[in-house]
Amino acid sequence: MLAYITAVAIVFCIYALLTLSLNLHFGFTGLINFGHVGFFAIGAYAAALCSLNGMPYVVGFTAAAALAALAAWPLGLLALRLREDYLAIVTLAFSEIVRVVITAEEWLTNGVQGLPGIPRPFASLGIGGNAELAYLALVVTAVVLAILLIRHLVRSPFGRLIQAIRDDEVAVKALGKNPAGVKVRVFMIGAAIAGIAGALYAHYMNYIVPDQFLPLVTFYVWMAMILGGAGSISGSLVGAGVLIGILEGSRVVRDLLPNVMQVEMASLRLALVGLLLVLFVLYRPNGLMVKRDES
Amino acid sequence: MSLRISNVDKWLGGVRVLDNVSMEVPDGGLIGLIGPNGAGKSTLFAVVSGFEPADGGEVRFADSPLGSTGPVARARRGLMRTFQVPRPFSKLTVRENLAAAAPGQRGETLWGAFFGAGAARAEQAAIRERADAIIDFLNLNAVRDSLAGQVSGGQRKLIELGRVLMAEPKMILLDEPFAGVNPVLQEEISDHIRTLNGQGIGFLIVEHNLAALSRLVGHLYAMDRGRMLMDGTPADVLADPVVREAYTGGAV
Amino acid sequence: MGYAYYVGLAINGAVEGLTIGLAALAINLVFAVGRFPNATTGDLMTVGAYAGIAVQQSGLRSLWLQGLAAVGASMALSLALYLFVFRALRGRGMLAPLLASIGLAILVRSVLSFFAGHDQYVFQLPIVRPIMIAGIPVQSYDLWLGGVALVCVLLVMAILFLSPIGRQMRAVADDLTLARTSGINVDRVYLVMWLLVGFVTGVAGMVLGVRTVVMPEMGWNMLLPAFAAAVLGGVGSPAGAVLAAMVVGIAQEMSTPVLGFTYKIGLAFMVLVVILAVRPAGLFGRVERVR
């Protein structure tokens, strides 16, 4: 039971990192990003490849953050010039390009076969089940650091500026401030956090394949963010919690309903995610935590 | 710092919305611009503030040509504008709206957000003080900590003015400051404009409320269908048959 | 591999392009009139194809009847989505309906796979020998499907550009407020638009289903190439969207020998990103103005 809870908590933390970083992009800066899973994938493969080539974990995690941020840079520049509906499509396309490249460049990524045998920190210490707990501690630390970082940013004058950009970019320009550089920086910071989440995921799963990085992951994270409320840090945790509740809860339900097959359960789980997204957009666009806005 | 607009043309979708428009706002001037709907006033503002490129002619500010510079560069030189429909940062408080407008904050850079916390804090304290003074001046004290998206339309107009003031303008292009504002507040805004003009800030004001505008400015330009009709004292301009024709014969 | 091989690829690509073009046309309609990228487009196609399969499973062998069921199902679903979701989201900007459409796409697909499972279905067609045109073997079904898609595109164009409701639709796309004040029944325009979307996606689903296999992800997989074509063609330019889709389809097929199968799928996105980097408003789009 403890092992199960630990496992769920680790996955929760990874989704919390993704939701927090998407919230930095969209909730605080208004950047529409439908390609978050792309940064997640880059982080996961960067960390996995570093590790599998015998480099220390620190190098892998640094590479994960740096490469994800680097990928965000041209995308951020593109974001400055695009209408927001085009940006939504372009970011979605970006994440699919990442997946296609990962699938195609077999010499590096082993293609659809994926990368097996990614080592997990603490596993080789010979502390048995405690290794899981140690990993959980690492993941929780990452979440806490991300929260502190984002909170500090948001409360600084820099954060006031990004929220002003979110509320009205034209007005920001009219005041003589250039939103361009700020937006690109935020895009890169959020991508780096998603990259770290990818690294943590790869080391936890031990085995990654391109199909783990479908756009569906991005939509999961969007649902979690909308549920918790765009622009709310605590909301990101709540949203990620609800998401994990749905993804994991359906396993519990399946144990209670032995007649339902696993694939059917997967369909129901997805249906619930889709339905919640629609219902929240319709009736609670500001999320669970905020009272319904009249505007 | 004077603003000189010379022979500006602007085409939109095959229509000449600005046709050889020229006008001048002298250093520290207080000038009005009128014209019926569709005269091209808002387009002129967009061109002068750099949001729309001109298709011909020249705009000079403080005796140097602005060329094809964008809105950010023009605002940094002190040529600022407000918008017909106010654009508040709706999820920031009124005070934050003003504070966000202060130019050159070191805390607004990523580096400054993390390092040099002491200096940044002192800087923010000074900014807050200045914002509070302007909030006081504009009578916005009651809503200082409300979200800007939740205050009245008239107060939003004042927030826009306050934000521009924080940004240390040399000249302000005001787009319909009285629209949707009750008469009492209109008088207040007029008083604020006079005070600021007395401090040397130039104004070019687009306004449909001709009575209130004539009481405020000493010189008026009149436009219709992309062309400058005439300029002169408010009494002369408003009595001119061509201007009257433009207002009665056109849109109504 | 002589030139016949490449001509074959080109023909295949053109039919593929027409299928993408139908989806892009449906996206374009919602883009222009409803003002958001509609992510349910692909799944509307899937539902149409499954309706056709359902008719086939019930023993009716006529492809026309199956196609009719496909169009009917897609139209009914499209109408329902509008009435129950998208109507309430009018005036809520771009993001709310986009998110809702993503949610609906996931919902529709998962409900479909819950009832129909993940098995693949095929439309049973009598075996026909390829016909030879100038020494090149061409599948006659491809010609048929290409023809059907083309007729459907022309029909929608005719409605858009020749009928009163089409004119009203374009007026709403140009300027909603102006259209409303000039007495256009905006509700009716939206209703007809969504029915048209259902019609187009139904035909597209059937064409795609006959050409390939019917499975829950078939429509979703068409979505990104169709998005790419719709953006490249330019919002409010239905002909541009179809043309761009043809280019995407042909480019995908022709590039397969060079780039390999995996990159073929990514080609549309890469073209999209590159073109938008150079022309942010799309090939035929306009830049928005600040007043």
TrEMBL record, chain A:
UniProt lineage: Bacteria, Pseudomonadati, Pseudomonadota, Alphaproteobacteria, Sneathiellales
Bilayer topology: Multi-pass membrane protein
Entry's localization field: Cell membrane
CC per GO annotation: plasma membrane
GO molecular function: branched-chain amino acid transmembrane transporter activity
Transmembrane portions of the chain: 6-24, 31-49, 55-79, 133-154, 186-207, 219-246, 266-283
Domain of life: Bacteria
Protein name from the UniProt record: Leucine/isoleucine/valine transporter permease subunit
Keywords of this entry: Cell membrane, Membrane, Transmembrane, Transmembrane helix
PANTHER family reported for this sequence: BRANCHED-CHAIN AMINO ACID TRANSPORT PERMEASE PROTEIN LIVM-RELATED, HIGH-AFFINITY BRANCHED-CHAIN AMINO ACID TRANSPORT SYSTEM PERMEASE
From TrEMBL, chain B:
Keyword Thylakoid in annotation: no
SUPFAM superfamilies per UniProt: P-loop containing nucleoside triphosphate hydrolases
InterPro entries in the record: AAA+_ATPase, ABC_AA/LPS_Transport, ABC_transporter-like_ATP-bd, ABC_transporter-like_CS, BCA_ABC_TP_C, P-loop_NTPase
E.C. no: 3.6.3.-
Entry keyword set: ATP-binding, Hydrolase, Nucleotide-binding, Transport
GO molecular function, one term: ATP hydrolysis activity
Domain spans labelled ABC transporter: 3-250
Keyword Nucleotide-binding tagged: yes
GO annotations of cellular component type: plasma membrane
Pfam families: ABC_tran, BCA_ABC_TP_C
PANTHER family in UniProt: CONSERVED COMPONENT OF ABC TRANSPORTER FOR NATURAL AMINO ACIDS, CONSERVED COMPONENT OF ABC TRANSPORTER FOR NATURAL AMINO ACIDS-RELATED
Name of this protein: Lipopolysaccharide export system ATP-binding protein LptB
Organism: Oceanibacterium hippocampi
Gene: lptB_8
From TrEMBL, chain C:
Cited InterPro entries: ABC_transp_permease, BCAA_transport_permease
Gene Ontology process terms (BP): D-alanine transmembrane transport; L-alanine transport; L-isoleucine import across plasma membrane
Keywords of this entry: Amino-acid transport, Cell inner membrane, Cell membrane, Membrane, Transmembrane, Transmembrane helix, Transport
Topology in the lipid bilayer: Multi-pass membrane protein
Entry's localization field: Cell membrane
One Pfam family, short name: BPD_transp_2
One GO cellular component term: plasma membrane
This protein's record includes keyword Lyase: no
Ranges annotated as spanning the membrane: 7-31, 63-86, 98-116, 143-162, 189-210, 222-249, 261-281
UniProt family annotation: Belongs to the binding-protein-dependent transport system permease family. LivHM subfamily.
Designated name of the protein: High-affinity branched-chain amino acid transport system permease protein LivH
Gene that this polypeptide is encoded by: livH_12
